[in-house]
Amino acid sequence: MKTELERVLCHAKEMPDKIALRFKKQSLTYGEMVEEIKKAAFKLEKMDVHPGDYILLGAPSRMEYIVAYLAMHYVGAIVIPMNKTNAMETVDYICSLFPVRYFFTDDTRMKERADYASLKELCDNAEEAGEEVLKGPYSIQDENQISEILFTTGTTGRPKGAVFSYKGIAANTQNTVQGSIMEESDVLLLPVPLNHSFGLRMMRTALYIGATIVLQSGFMFAKELETNINEYHCTCLACVPSALQIIYQQAGERYAEFLGKLRYIEFSTGALDVATRKKISKELPDTKIINSWGSTETGGVLFIEIQSEREKIESAGRPVEGVKIKVVDAEGNEIDSSRDNPGRLAMSGDMIMSEYCNNSELTQQTIRNGWLFTNDLSYIDSEGYVYLLGRIDDIINVGGEKVAPVEVEKYVNEIEGILESGCIGVEDPKKMLGQVPVIYIVKENQEITEEIIWKRLGQCMPPYMIPQYIRFTDNVPKNYLGKTDRKELRKKWDGENQEGAETVDNEIIKNMLSRRSVRNFSDRPIEKTYLEKILECARFAPSGHNMQTWKFTVIQNQNNISRLREITQKVAKEKKTSFYGFLNPKVLIVVSNDRRNVCAVQDSACAIENIMLAANSYGIGSCWLNSWIEISDEDIIRNELRTYQIPDTHIVYGIVALGYPSGIVKTPAKKQDTIVYADKGE
Amino acid sequence: MRERVIAVLEKALPGVEVEASEYLVDDGMIDSLGIVNIIAELSLEFGISIPFEELEADNFNSVDNMVKLVEKLL
Questions:
Q1: Domain boundaries, chain B
Q2: Most buried in the list A343, A516, A575, A629, measured by CB within 10 Å?
Q3: Predicted ipTM?
C-alpha cells in the first residue's frame, strides 16, 4: 500500500503540470508542490528534525499547511495536526504527553513558546534543496511505526490522542478512496478543518488520486463557496451538515444554483438528518449526495449514496471492503441486532488507531482483540446497512423503553416551520418514568406552538418517545464541528429547572423574558383584533398624575410607512444621529406626547413597553425606533406629523414597528453585571 | 466610523488585537459564530443590511476592509 506522499511524488513525475492545490489566487502544480515539499523538508533537516520526532502543526486552510504536512512525512517525523488557533492550556497538555520538538503555527499568540516555529517561514524562505543533500524521502522501516496522532477535542475533559501507524493512515485513506467517488479529474473544494479526521482523509484521498484541491477557510461565507465553485470549476465538496444552515441562511434559494453544479457532495461528522437528505436530493437533482460516517479513531468507514440507495435513506451506510462490523451487547458479545434490539457498534480493520496516546486504560476499554468498540448505539439490517441511534450515553431510558435523541429530533425536524431541534433526556420531574425526553426547538415560523408540535408528534411517534417538555430557544448549542452539544443542552435545562424555577415562571414572566427586538418582518398582516388589543394595552400604561397626554397614531399604509422610513433616514443622516433600519413592518405606532408634561418621556416609554409585550404575547414582533425624539422639530418631520394631526406641542418619543417576524430573531447576550445587591453584610 | 467598527470588533473578539491583524478570518481569529455576531452588530450599529454578495472573507479580514464595507452600504 502506498502512502499519499509516495503517490504525490509519482504524480509530480507523471503529471507535473496538473494543479494540485489552490488557495484564492495562488496555486501549485504537483511538480511545484513536490519542489516546495523538498525545500521545506530540507529546512526541517537543517532544524535538526529527525525521523520519529514529534511535531505539532497548526492547520490553517492554506497551501503551506499541506506542503508542511507532507514535508514532515518526507523527513519521517510524527505529525500532530492542531487547530489553527489553540488554547495555550491544550497545547501545554499535549506537550506533556510526549517530547514535542516544534510547534509550527501561524498563531502569533504562541510566539513565546520555546517550541514555536513559524509555519509561514518554513514554506516561504525555504532554501533550495539539492537532491544530494536531502536525506528523504524517509523509507518506512515498519508499517506499525507511529505516523500521526489526531487529537479529538473531547467534549468531556481533556483531548484524547488517537495514535495511528503508517498502516493505519494508509488504510484510512484507502477506505475513503473506495467509499468516496472521487476521480483524478475532480476538483475538490475543501472548507473543512484540516486537522480533523474528515478534512485530513479527504485531503489525503485527493492527493492519493491526483485530483485538485481548492482550499477555503471554513463555511462562514456562502458567497465564497459560490465564487470558488464558479471560478475554479469545483466538481465536489467536503461538507459538514451544520454548514448547510449557514449556506441556506445567507444564500436562500440561490444555494441550489451553485451547489447544483457539483458532481457530488460528501457529508461527514454527524449524519445529515433525514429531512435534509430528502430536501437536498430533491433540490440538487444532478448532484450526488454521499454521507460518510466515521470517527477520529477509524476514519470514514460507512458510506451511502443517498439518491441511488433511496430505500436506505435513514441509514448511515455500509462498510467499505476490508472493514468488518458487528453489533454487541453490554458484555461485548455479538448480537443479532434490529431496531428493537440495538447494541454497541464495533469494527475491525487496518484503519483503526493503534492506541490512545498515554492512556492504556482507555485503550483497553476501546480496543479488544483487534475490534474497536464505539460508543454508538446501532443495528444492522439484513443487507448490511448500519443504522445509528445515537451515543450510548445519550440514550434516554423512558420507563425501560430506549429512546434515541436523534430519532426524536428526526421526527421534530420534519414538522414544517421548525428550523432545528436538540433532544436530551432528563430525570422525570413526576418521578414515574425514570427519564423523559425534552426537546429544545428553534422555530423558523413563529406561528408554531407547542400544541401544534404535540399534535403532529402524536400522529407519528410511539407515546414514550414524545418529548414531555418542549422549550423554544434561539439556538441549539453546537460543538466546533457543528454537532449538537447535548452536555450544554443539559446544563441549560438544569439552569432553567433549578429548584423553585418552576414556581416563579408564569405566562406573564415568560412573555417578558421572551421579547426580543425584531427588525425583519414577514408579509403576514396583523389581525385587527390583535392590533386593537395591543393599543388598548398602550392606553392602560401608567401615566404620571394620570395626565394621559399621549397620542398613539397608527400607520398601516405601506406607502406612508416607506415615506416615514425614507425621511427618517434622510434627516438622521443630516443630523448625524443614529438610525436603526427596519424591514417591512406591517404597522407603525407613532407614540407622541406633550412636551410640557414633565412625565412625557416616562409615560411614553411605559406605553411603548406595553405595546411590545402585548405584541409578543401574540407572537407579533416589535422594535422601538427612538430617533425621532431628536428630530421631531425638523421641518420635514414636523410637516409629516401635521398630516397625521399630531399637535406641534408633541414630540415623538418613539415609533414602534410591528409585524410577524421573518427569519431568525437574534438574542443579544444580556449583560450579567447590571444587577447589584448593594446592602452590605445582610 | 472607524472607532465604532473597532468597538464592535473588540466586543466580539475579546483579547484579539483587531487593528494589528490583516487576516482575521483566514487566521481563524473570527470563527463562524463570531462572524454571525459581527454581521449582526455591524447591521445594528450602522443600520445597514449586508447583502449576500458582500459576505466574503476579504470584507471581514481587517478593520480597514470592514470600514470600507460599511461605507459602501450606508
A1: 2-73
A2: A343
A3: 0.74
